[in-house]
Amino acid sequence: ARQLHSPWATFHFASRTIRLQQDWRRLGVAAVVWDAAVVLCAYLEMEGIVLRDRSVIELGAGTGLLGIVVTLLGPKEPAGVKYCIPHAALRDVDCARVTITDRAAALELLESNVQANLPPELRPRAVVKELTWGKDLDNFSPGAFDLILGADIVYLEETFAELLQTLEHLCSERTVILLSCRIRYERDLKFLRMLRERFSVSEVHYDSSKDVHIYKAQRGGHKDDL
């Protein structure tokens, strides 16, 4: 709990130190890093999931850790080539295109963290954008994303219908959704049941030390490996 109330949180991913500003007092849950984000970052890095030339969106980004890490991993070459690719070697087509979203109140802190932790050559690849689930969908092209990410965004039952509506709007047949969460309450299981009514869902990872599950969801019976 002490770490949640700290004004800074530091992590190491993609061969970089990421230092994030937190502001629990002003923004509450939206302005601290939760374990689910850390576990999903580690999963993406550890599994070597190909992000190059993928269109990625994060929902409920909060402090921005996940979106930052995805952007840093975006130009990663296969077969062990280092992440820190020189500016001259970064071809535009190779990089992930990352949209990092949250509600309006969280955007200032989010934008500040994203700008502070991305090298200049990668900043154009990450866009911070307002998205209130179920409300701002006209600002996003339907089915435009290859990968949708969410870390610890399943906790308020009154948002479940809007979150599902948002996922359906952003999804195409090929889209992969990865949701990282701790199952705290019966309502969390209810959301998973609602998700399974609309998507094909499987658990792809469980971190027992942090009690965090990662679920993969796709439209209908479509299965696609990342």
TrEMBL record:
- Which protein is depicted? Protein N-lysine methyltransferase METTL21A
Quote the catalytic activity from the record: L-lysyl-[protein] + 3 S-adenosyl-L-methionine = N(6),N(6),N(6)-trimethyl-L-lysyl-[protein] + 3 S-adenosyl-L-homocysteine + 3 H(+)
Q: Which keywords are on file for this protein?
A: Cytoplasm, Methyltransferase, S-adenosyl-L-methionine, Transferase
Any idea where this protein resides?
Cytoplasm
The terms describing its cellular component in GO are: cytosol; protein-containing complex
Q: Which family does it belong to?
A: Belongs to the methyltransferase superfamily. METTL21 family.
| Gene this protein is translated from | Mettl21a
The protein's predominant localisation is cytoplasm
Is Zinc-finger one of the keywords UniProt gives this record?
no
A single BP term in Gene Ontology: methylation
